């Protein structure tokens, strides 16, 4: 049974940052000078904490930082400015190497680390065309003074650590990084990378299929059926317009975008359904399963903030958290936050050209250009995207406008009611979120937060929109106040799993998740007779049941009327309980059957390109219900024959479904082994609550993204907050807390992180007093 541990100890392993330039970094294998640096010696928790600066700091007043045994910090400061500064110190202390990599990635500076590789230069060119930092100056200028000061002091904390630390992280030597002061605009640029619009992933797949004679049907299916899951980056087809190197770089670009926020589960249960009689909340965000984790667990108490929660690395905010009054989490709304715009008819003078130098490691800088239209950057100039040569297509994105997520989430952390919480989120823009909420007074609710054009119902009829139509849509932008909100529903819970947040008079999005997770969450809550506890919610977060897989199996059995029962492998599938547990042979059998069955089904319908493993099993189920019995029987018999080989070679689901423990440097040829720390069987699948997305194959494969952090809070007790990371807090190689939460995560165990200062101090491993400079 999952349990909560207050101060568990040590060791295990995992993977590094967004899976970004896996291909690019592999080129470093030919650069011996970059790889002679050996890994740091094993570092104790005491040694790592001793490296944290405590004296002669630019503070107004002394600050206390309590660290627990997992190197989770809680900052107590007499001023907000000091709190922000110390949080910046904390992020730099724990994740400086990761932050520096993310900074260069968000700015299109990968060649600065990887060297003169043509497709890496194309990757940088494409990232710069996307322009994650385009709105940063306007965002900073429009920020309220208190938010701007918070951001500036957080940046000061990073810079102080970077300037004064004697020993830099291992990443600096391997990637050729240098000390370079941070600017607040760069923090905002990383925030925009984290706010990537997931619609872009689907667009790339659709753009590559536009020459199909039945593309109108494909577009109608994709844009008209928003309940289907988005195309996976791995499933994007080959484009004849791209070279093989560009295709590899495109795959990396899509991995980058995919890793920053594809999905999540979030649940708030009213006190009528809990053992404590107060609401409880459970969140598990789904991001790239890479190391270091994209989150930090932290806490702070200052004059205006008192919160524990999950902070995105390098960002001065709590995206998931708990205060004395409220708790919140969220899932990506998958809102229609962007449009592709045909700007070929605009007057020439309205399009400008940007020229920039791209620094290249071991080589001369190179110069590239991009164009910008009144609607936004011209994506067709990006060398990796599958546009036609005669097209001029721009990207209109809310992320290129001055929305203010830092102010929104800082003020949300100060809210005391659902109304206050929703009002605080008014300036929020990207990425669009369904925020799930609970408070001490007993309210549970959901707030949809973003900014989105009020499009008309015909919007899905085109992939690339006329400029005049987009101009009309974008003159009327809806904000959080115009979007769905739920408060105290009669069922006594709210849940979100990337499904539509509620009815709306204008389209909210096209590519919502398949219904598996939201239906499973809802069914488990509705049908539970016993009160919910932390342990019960922890079990829910690790649930591996697939409704769509079991429905597909049962529909086939009913349609084929016993024709499959003669085959011995079908007995194994028929007896499967629908759970993708790591030790399940039934899950392996179903997967070995499902992949060749779905492939043959699409081939029989003369639609081979419709088979896309990233779209989940509901689409295949629809095809089953549309096919005749003879076609189904032939596909099933073929699949059963094909399934025999993987079942003879492998024993259970975890033999092929693997969680590799490695940093990004583990992908470097020859020496990458020193950065790989393990390879584990794991449960879950594409559509289970324990999300572990993967290529649809019956061969061994690795989890690409999924559940990589968890949070549970009970509003009855301000100290009843429980968190765990897939990995650990520390990004320092060979640190005692680099991977110390991995075994806890795999077991469904969480770490208690108290909120009240006296409890924090009582349970601290070390407490530091930070003193101002004289």
Features of this protein?
disordered N terminus, 774 residues, 18% strand, 34% helix, ten-stranded mixed β-sheet, S45, zymogen, alpha+beta, metal-binding, 25 helices, signal, nine-stranded mixed β-sheet
Would you give an account of this structure?
By secondary structure, the chain is α+β, with helices and mostly antiparallel strands. It has a domain at 547-578 and 585-651. 34% of the residues lie in helices and 18% in strands. It contains 25 helices and 30 strands. Strands 20-16-15-9-8-7-6-3-2-30 form a ten-stranded mixed β-sheet. Strands 1, 4, 5, 21, 24, 26, 27, 28 and 29 form a nine-stranded mixed β-sheet that branches. The longest helix is centred in the N-terminal third of the chain and has 27 residues, at 80-106. The N and C termini lie far apart (53 Å).
Helix content: 25-40%
- For the biggest β-sheet, the strand order reads 20-16-15-9-8-7-6-3-2-30
Return the average pLDDT rounded to an integer.
Answer: 89
Distance between the termini: 53 Å
Portion in beta strands: 15-25%
For the secondary structure, the number of strands is 30
User: Could you tell me the radius of gyration in angstroms?
Assistant: 25 Å
> Could you say which structural class the secondary elements and strand pairing correspond to?
alpha+beta
User: Stretches where pLDDT falls below 50 for ≥5 residues?
Assistant: 1-35, 225-241
Q: Which word captures the global form?
A: globular
Count up the helices.
25
Largest sheet: 10 strands, mixed
Protein name: Penicillin acylase family protein
Pfam family, one: Penicil_amidase
Signal peptide: 1-34
Active site: 264
